[in-house]
Write a structure and sequence with these properties.
globular, 41% helix, 2 domains, two-stranded antiparallel ribbon, alpha+beta, 12 strands
């Protein structure tokens, strides 16, 4: 999480220093770790010849995951065909293999949070590049059987320019994405000029609320009121 956020901030600062424009799209994959089907993972393992001997071990987490419904005189057993087994090193490895199809257009990944980026000097070129990247993301979602809600997708332009001639809002899954001045990524509020004013304000308000909560719990009167 920290590494993905650090990489994002460093590259944005570089773009701003070079007077360029960066267009970032933040996607949230719905049920990434719970809804990923087994078939794409198996195919990815088979395509990597070094990992082909692990095919039998790859099926094991799913084959060993059974759902049992017991009643007085009835029992039912169902094979779980989606989702990763919790714990161990297999979970991050499998998810990295699934997301590998998007790595060419990605700038950061943290579990189900994905950031797509296009950088350039001309806004129309940047818009075209991010539209191509979003089309790649649509193809990837169809291929691995996952979904992204376009209404929860954030679009932000990192730049110090006041005007963006030729800029057009890209579309994703048939929905035109609206440009935002603020976006929340990995619990950090980012603004288009990266001045951190909004993020600091959010943290100050949160600390202020926690201080008052502690004062009510441990103040002069002591104890919580019913």
């Amino acid at each position: 999480m920290e590494m993905a956020l650090l990489q994002l901030v460093v590259l944005v600062e570089k773009v701003l220093d070079q007077q360029e424009t960066a267009l970032d799209v933040f996607l949230n994959i719905e049920g990434a770790l719970n809804n990923t089907p087994m078939t794409p993972c198996v195919l990815l393992f088979l395509n990597m010849w070094l990992l082909t001997p692990l095919y039998g071990g790859l099926e094991l987490p799913w084959r060993a995951a059974w759902l049992r419904q017991l009643s007085m005189d009835f029992s039912k057993r169902v094979v779980v065909s989606r989702g990763f087994s919790e714990g161990g090193v297999l979970l991050p490895l499998l998810w990295c293999l699934v997301v590998d199809g998007l790595i060419a257009g990605l700038i950061g990944v943290d579990e189900d949070d994905v950031c797509l980026r296009a950088v350039g000097k001309f806004p129309n070129t940047v818009s075209g590049l991010i539209q191509w990247t979003l089309h790649t993301a649509e193809t990837w979602c169809d291929k691995v059987g996952l979904s992204v809600n376009p209404d929860n997708t954030g679009l932000i332009v990192f730049t110090r320019k006041r005007k963006l001639p030729g800029f057009f809002a890209p579309y994703f899954l048939g929905v035109t994405l609206c440009r935002c001045m603020l976006v929340k990524y990995l619990a950090v509020v980012l603004d288009s000029r990266l001045i951190w004013r909004e993020h600091v304000g959010v943290k100050v308000r949160k600390a202020h609320n926690m201080l008052w909560a502690c004062g009510r719990a441990c103040g002069v009167t002591w104890g919580l009121r019913p």
